[in-house]
Design brief:
Keywords: Acyltransferase, Transferase. It is a single chain. This protein has helices spanning 16-20, 35-44, 96-110, 128-134, and strands spanning 6-9, 50-57, 60-69, 80-87, 115-120, 137-143, 146-152. It has 156 residues and is of the alpha+beta class. The longest helix is centred in the middle third of the chain and has 15 residues, at 96-110. The protein starts with 5 loop residues before the first strand and ends with a strand.
């Protein structure tokens, strides 16, 4: 199922408050930081080369995605790493997260990448089933207690 109208938009003064108001379910808070915290982390860590967008369904912000886009140094040097992905609790289970990942994967692949990385904190209600269904596989690495996953792109 592909929800029509899902697209990524830059976060500006006009939409920042609405995007910051997005919330995950209470049982998901241990796995994903808020948009406000994410934006603060991005500002504090410019060396990670943060790239972030609001996820929209039509004209309504429904999610947020942030990547470390080919940082010049560090453990993910030159690679694309999904740092944050969230869909507001009112819009979950509608294919928005999957469509967002599809669009991110296409952007990263168009940038010449052969893989897309992310990580998750294991626990009851963890996002691993979501990422597994999309095609991510564990790399065998652990980063700050999180299990690192890889989506490999087939050769073009």
């Amino acid at each position: 199922m592909r929800p029509p109208g899902v697209h990524l938009r830059e976060i500006t003064d006009d939409n920042r408050d609405a995007v910051r108001a997005l919330r995950v379910r209470r049982d998901q808070k241990q796995f994903v930081a808020s948009v406000s915290k994410s934006l603060k982390q991005a500002a504090r860590h410019p060396e990670a080369n943060p790239w972030y967008r609001a996820v929209y369904l039509g004209d309504e912000p429904v999610g947020f995605v942030m990547l470390s886009w080919k940082p010049p140094a560090g453990p993910y040097e030159g690679r694309h790493f999904i740092w944050r992905l969230l869909v507001d609790k009112r819009h979950q289970r509608r294919g928005i997260g999957r469509e967002t990942l599809t669009q991110i994967a296409a952007l990263v692949r168009a940038d010449g990448a052969t893989e897309l990385l992310t990580s998750y904190d294991p626990g009851d209600g963890e996002p691993w089933p979501f990422y597994r269904k999309f095609g991510f596989e564990p790399t065998g690495d652990i980063d700050d207690g999180e299990i690192v996953l890889r989506l490999t792109f087939p050769a073009q």
